[in-house]
Specification:
Radius of gyration: 30 Å
CATH architecture of the domain at 60-125 and 162-193: Sandwich
Order of helices and strands: HHHEEEEEEEHHEE
Number of strands: 9
Number of helices: 5
Structural class: alpha+beta
CATH class of the domain at 60-125 and 162-193: Mainly Beta
Strand content: 25-35%
Shape: globular
């Protein structure tokens, strides 16, 4: 029987069904090279925690709260930014129509325990990229028309719309003056934005 199988391999024709498991054996042989990787992949999944809080090391808590200005909710889609004062880690959350938010750190609602600086930024308009492109084109066209004339640099216009509802000093956690301590367990952070 050994000679018969040997002669079939040399013929290069379709294999005879003397061994019906030949196609399966070939597939098994092809997959053996990745078998040692299975325990390593399982280790990585376990180390990553399979989802929530990948890479967060240390004691954590959850935070939720509300942001108001003059007793009214700030625009929906505004971002609340918490910056850990010792580690520099960032947690962010978007406000809903009532000003409620829950910050997330590295995809998890768990936030490192510690002291934070807090900032609030307005929602980014959906057409922000298109608007910036139009403004750049308008500036370039104006430069072409005024060739040879001195061109004054553009001056920043005051914030409009949603951006005007958030006082400027809140736009960065470092300048807002707002500080918050996250402790283990559930934490409530309510902000009432005031002009400086």
């Amino acid at each position: 029987m050994g000679r018969h199988v040997h002669s079939l391999e040399k013929s290069r024709g379709p294999p005879l069904l003397s061994d019906p498991l030949v196609p399966y054996k070939k597939n098994i042989m092809r997959t053996r090279h990745w078998r040692p990787a299975i325990p390593f992949a399982l280790f990585l999944l376990g180390a990553a925690g399979c989802g929530g809080g990948v890479g967060i090391q240390g004691e954590t808590g959850t935070v939720h709260g509300t942001v108001l200005r003059e007793s009214k909710p700030i625009p929906a889609g505004s971002s609340v930014v918490l910056m850990h004062l010792e580690k520099g880690s960032i947690a962010t959350g978007s406000t809903d129509e009532a000003g409620h938010f829950t910050p997330r750190m590295r995809g998890s609602p768990r936030v490192l325990v510690g002291n934070y600086a807090v900032g609030v930024t307005p929602p980014v308009p959906e057409d922000a990229d298109a608007q910036a492109q139009l403004e750049m084109e308008a500036t370039l066209n104006a430069k072409k028309q005024e060739k040879g004339k001195k061109i004054e640099p553009a001056k920043a216009s005051p914030p409009a719309g949603d951006a005007a509802e958030i006082p400027e000093h809140y736009l960065s956690p470092e300048t807002s003056g707002e500080r918050f301590k996250v402790q283990a367990g559930d934490n409530q952070l309510d902000l009432n934005l005031t002009p400086k």
